[in-house]
Amino acid sequence: MTESCPSCGACLGGRAGCQAVFDELSARAWTSPRRGAVHNLSVDAYAMQHPDDYCVSPKSYAAHLIGLCCGVEHPGGAALYWAIPRWLDGPAAIEKPPLIAHRGDLTIAEVSDPRGEEQEHPERVRRWAQNVWAAHAAQHDLARRWLEAVGKGGTGRRDGLR
Q1: pLDDT in tens for each of the 162 residues of the chain?
Q2: I need a surface site. Which of 3, 61, 97, 160 has the fewest CB within 10 A?
Q3: CA 102 to chain centroid
Q4: d(Cα 56, Cα 5) in Å, to the nearest integer?
């Protein structure tokens, strides 16, 4: 049996093997419009399953949590998605919510099969992201409030911020 990733549980050769699969998946996003269209959703799902590496700061955690919320609940909302970094670029300090222990039942292993049909890739990524989003149910209200503020172009003091 292959060693599982301590962050997400994928049996891909431990944390290093999991990262290698993510790196390959990211590189392949540039090879196909179908893959590229869901790349940001892949990044946010992966980051929320690997917060010790990708969500160290409160702002990086918020960016990926809000991005996951946007990608799952507002697919096709590219303008809203790209407003997230502008919203986060401000003087207020974001309080990082507690990490979720169980980060979903699906992992990058479900979307990384290179033999998989190219046409199925976006749907596999969406299922994975929805599963990761569901695992973060305790933070849905916070993410939605933040995303609402992003959509309003909110500045200054924000809900969930100090």
Answers
A1: 589 999 999 999 999 999 999 999 999 999 889 999 999 999 999 999 999 999 999 999 999 999 999 999 998 889 999 999 999 997 666 899 999 999 999 999 999 876 667 789 999 999 999 999 999 999 999 999 999 999 987 544 344 443
A2: 3
A3: 15
A4: 18
Q: Residue 143 belongs to what domain range?
A: 14-151
C-alpha span between 64 and 54 (Å, rounded): 9
Residue 19 domain flag: yes
Which tokens hold the place of 14? 């431990």
Residue 67's nearest CA partner among 14, 59, 108, 5 is: 59
Read off φ and ψ for residue 11, nearest 5 degrees.
-90, 80
Quick check: is 162 in a domain?
Answer: no
Q: Are 68 and 136 in contact (CB under 8 A)?
A: yes
| 55 inside domain | yes
Residues in the chain: 162
Q: Is the model's pTM score more than 0.70?
A: yes
How many domains is the chain built from?
Answer: 1
From CA 157, how far away is CA 81, in angstroms rounded? 20
